[in-house]
Amino acid sequence: MVVEEYRARVQPYLDRLVGPFLTWTPDRLSYLAFGLTALAALASALARWWGPLLFLPVAVLVFFGGLFDVLDGEVARRTKRTSRRGDLVDHVLDRYADVVLLLGLAVSSYADPVLALLALVSLLLTSYMGTQAQALGVGRLYRGLLSRADRLLILALAAFLEFDWSLPWPWAPTAPWSRFHPAGLTFTVLDVALLYFVVAGQRTAIGRARRIYRSLTPPDGAGR
């Protein structure tokens, strides 16, 4: 699942959505995106005591946090307010958003803390490889199995399913795969999403590192 590949298709919708925010500063949108994600992290943590119903607001907050994270760049480009400071603010807040969101899931008791930690490592490595390419003059890398848009969409969907399947809906199976027990292990929907983050994140990070390495010209006479 690579959302970035479909960006051209959704661009007309982004063009409509960005209109009301053209008077905003890009940094203001970046802080709003981070604030919504931080609230999602808090709601995730509180689910430990208040139950899975909180995952509905988590899903909504993660989705809109991701949406405003996209709109800040759109506003910056449309209003010609792109800057290195703005780029720094955006990337710093994105990384903090990743950290607090996965910490919230780790506390929630609906996600394995070890998986949350491994997923966080994979996400940070994925982002690092993208910015490292930019630092080396290769250009910012967004491609791979796990872009930021991918993981926010997956987390929003996983949180919604965790909420939805906690209710006695007719379509909710009596033993949903959000609580299956292979080999004595218990997995939730969020665990499955985090496991995907671990695998896809490592593959994306390694793939980006190889792409960067191949694009760099080796010095004359170098043995590698």
Describe this protein's structure.
This protein is mainly alpha-helical and 224 residues long. It has a single domain (9-167, 187-215), classed as CDP-alcohol phosphotransferase transmembrane (TM) domain (Four Helix Bundle (Hemerythrin (Met), subunit A)). The protein has seven helices and no strands. The radius of gyration is 19 Å and the shape is globular. The two termini are 34 Å apart. 38% of the residues are buried. Residues 173-184 have low confidence and may be disordered.
What is the fold named in CATH at topology level?
A: Four Helix Bundle (Hemerythrin (Met), subunit A)
Shape designation:
globular
Q: Provide the β-strand percentage band.
A: under 5%
CATH hierarchy class name:
Mainly Alpha
Helix/strand/pairing class, anyone?
mainly alpha
Distance between the termini: 34 Å
Radius of gyration: 19 Å
Can you tag this structure with a few keywords?
7 helices; mainly alpha; Four Helix Bundle (Hemerythrin (Met), subunit A); 224 residues
Helix/strand layout:
Blueprint: H1 7-18, H2 26-50, H3 55-78, H4 84-107, H5 113-135, H6 148-164, H7 189-215
Write a short abstract of this structure.
This protein is mostly helical. 68% of the residues lie in helices and 0% in strands.
